[in-house]
Amino acid sequence: MGTFAVNNFGDTRSGGLAGPMGLFIIVLLSIATVLLIRNMNKRVRRLPDSFPDVRQTQREAEIARLNADLERSDDGTVADRVDADRSTVVDTGVDDEVKAVTTERDGGSADGDPRRV
């Protein structure tokens, strides 16, 4: 009759390196993960509880700069001139209105272009 069960899958006893190599990779990745978590925890602990408001910091810097400018003036004349300039109206005699000059030829724009008014 013959043989009923035949092993045609090759030699299964030699070259068994896949199991130990897989275990080595898993252990290596586990160690790397633990070290990464410890490092990130140290970095997070070093962070401040809250970060300063950027707009508030800029305002404080501007106030400090203005105070330093005022302290640099010998007798406070800079502050007096600034307040005086704001409170008085100086009339220069110049009208704020701009008036265009038109040519008699076309009755249009000042540069003579009939398409522009």
UniProtKB/TrEMBL annotation:
Q: Where are the transmembrane segments?
A: 17-37
Keywords of this entry: Membrane, Transmembrane, Transmembrane helix
Q: Where is this region: Disordered?
A: 93-117
Q: Which domain of life is it from?
A: Bacteria
Composition bias (Basic and acidic residues) maps to: 96-117
- This chain belongs to which protein, by name? Uncharacterized protein
Query: What's the source species for this entry?
Result: Paractinoplanes atraurantiacus
